[in-house]
Amino acid sequence: MPVLYKPFQSKLENKENGKKLFYPRVVRAGNVATNQLSKEIAAYSSLSPGDVKNTLDNLVTVIAQHLQTSESVTLDGLGTFRMVMIAQGKGVETANEVSAAQATLTVRFQPACTRNQDRTLATRSMVTGAKCVRYDRLSSTTVTGGEETNKPDTGGDDGGESPDPTL
């Protein structure tokens, strides 16, 4: 199935014309949990779904341990996880006054990518070859791979990232 998108109107006005412009936003068709991933990965390997789930659970534990020791973690073909602190606008006047209480700790993920020889971004892993279809222009039933599937239930706000209207 293709990547579905719908129009999204920015809440911010465009600097050039003062209008609230529209941008595409991905519609999420659902969520795939670890159990489902385990079954699908097991179909590609000689491992049982239980073995795969155990491996994925342990992967999460090991990644967390490395992140909590200020290391970044790269999974080839997937991307890099790293810990970051986000300041909450609580600056101080001297370096000696800086403390962790001024920020919140969170994990950032950067998808894997390849670069051209001039270091410009060439492709992003898992995005290359994706096809996009506008959600509101689909028929009520879409045929994919010989099977009929209903349009996904978006459940309201899709939580997608909106574009930066200042660009």
Mean pLDDT: 80
| Side-by-side strand order of the widest sheet | 2-1-8
Percent helix, as a range, is 10-25%
Low-pLDDT windows of residues: 142-160, 162-167
Strand elements, count: 10
Order of helices and strands: EEHHEEEEEEEE
Helix and strand content put the structural class at alpha+beta
Instruction: Please report the distance between the alpha carbons of the first and last residues.
Output: 31 Å
Number of helices: 2
Tell me the major beta sheet: 3 strands, mixed
**What is the CA-based Rg, rounded?**
21 Å
Task: Specify the overall morphology.
Answer: extended
Beta content comes to 25-35%
Secondary-structure topology with pairs:
Elements: E1 3-9, E2 22-26, H1 34-44, H2 49-67, E3 73-75, E4 79-87, E5 103-111, E6 113-115, E7 121-124, E8 132-134, E9 141-144, E10 147-150
Parallel strand pairs: 1-8
Antiparallel strand pairs: 1-2, 3-4, 4-5, 6-7, 9-10
Helix pairs in contact: 1-2
Structure description:
The chain is an alpha+beta fold and 167 residues long. Among the domains are: 1-30 and 127-167, no CATH class; 33-71, no CATH class. It contains 2 helices and 10 strands, in the order ββααββββββββ. Helix 1 (34-44) packs across helix 2 (49-67). The two termini are 31 Å apart.
Based on the model shown, name its key terms.
three-stranded mixed beta sheet; 18% helix; alpha+beta; three-stranded antiparallel beta sheet; single chain; 167 residues; disordered C terminus
Short characterization:
By secondary structure, the chain is α+β, with helices and mostly antiparallel strands. It is built from two helices and ten strands.
